[in-house]
Automatic annotation (TrEMBL):
Protein's organism: Streptococcus macacae NCTC 11558
InterPro entries: GH, GH_1_N_CS, Glyco_hydro_1, Glyco_hydro_1_AS
Gene Ontology biological process terms in this record: carbohydrate catabolic process
Protein name: 6-phospho-beta-glucosidase AscB
Ranges in coiled-coil conformation: none
GO CC entries: cytosol
Amino acid sequence: MTDVKPFPKEFLWGGATAANQCEGAYNLDGRGLANVDLIPTGADRFAIIAGQKKMFTFKKGYFYPAAEAIDMYHHFKDDIALFGEMGFKTYRLSIAWTRIFPKGDELEPNEAGLQFYENLFKECHRYGIEPLVTITHFDCPMHLIREYGGWRSRKMLEFYERLCRTLFTRFKGLVKYWITFNEINMILHAPFMGAGLYFEAGENEEEVKYQAAHHELVASAIATKLAHEIDPQNKVGCMLAAGQYYPNTCNPADYWQAMQEDRSNYFFIDVQVRGEYPHYAEKQFERAGLHIVMTQEDLQLLKENTVDFVSFSYYSSRVASADPKAGEESQGNIFASLKNPYLKSSAWGWQIDPLGLRITLNAIWDRYQKPMFIVENGLGAIDKPDENGYVEDDYRIDYLREHIKAMNEAVNEDGVELLGYTTWGCIDLVSAGTGEMKKRYGFIYVDRDNEGKGTLKRFKKKSFTWYQKVIASNGTDL
Ligand code: P53
């Protein structure tokens, strides 16, 4: 396929994971308990994720998949060697806050936790892999949730700042790409998972969520400031669960609804890129009677410390209608969307839309003109390994190929600026939405099932050699 134009020379190909979905070892070497440890599989999962059902300790009768996950804590050397073999230029991972500060409000970090990540980053560099580090990926110490209510508390600014200062100082020279909060807009949809928020009956949930969001936005600005002060080489990004909304029909009311839905997500990035609250948000707070406490100093921090790049996850586009009775809801995703009849769906009902990626890249570029980074994209599917553990995952290759083509067009035909592409779950890991192992994204199969059984052995899938070739040809051999 020589007619395909290559990606920019420095394009960062790679894969992405999150600590709570792969590390396991939840109680080793001084690690404290986090919200993500206490999210079980099963029928109550969604209510817990949404902060509607309380799960502040392990309870009998539940299975908690993050506790062991794929035990990357003990396998990281072998796993990174496999990433190296695929030719990764970058590996996106997240820090488990509770390895560094087990309770969250200590003054001194836990050396064993820092050492673990130092070893991991050094291992990456052995293979020429640049770490891309998410500081918080759905991760909040339980102690901070019990004592302070998670991100609803302003005290979080101080704890997060200490975490960031510790990381930036210790890992100076080892890490230069940082993401402050994974899918920061997730706070609106999954507030316990996203921000450690649990709601008491009768409270104004909207107000709590936006107050907590304000704290995260200011914390992100503080982190950006610190990162730049500690090492001017550092690049800091925001991170959005992206996917453009389409209007269900050409009825202007549907277009207007789609625009409102997009704004509810872009709101966060508007603040992080432009450094101020957009007018539509101020008006929205006013109309809803939300009183969000912000200081002059907060506003100044936001203004002076905007991000260097905009990163996002993209799995699907979305559909909105002004008519509450219009059409069928698409399934299986935390984001509400109508079903799009022009698209096929994954086994979990996520609709597959490669052109939607090109549309989303262009929409974000038009809005911000900041370098972008696609830090999650991929297909969650059921894999059936043969007796040697080999999976012929042509469906995954097809999904990725089409999305890489769309991304290529956005870069080479439309001229958007894109730093890199990391596929989600480059090694099979626990699903954030459902807690299942069965929903697999990886190039590497991990022998573990939904109940936590399996040898944890790793096997290369067909997509492993395919992605290796994609990277070696800088995206021209698909
Ligand atoms: P899973 C939806 C629901 C939960 C998390 O999701 C999500 C999304 C997608 O917008 O966000 C990201 O595992 C998240 C990852 C997660 C991935 O999507 O439910 O950043 O942690 O694993 C895929 O299939």
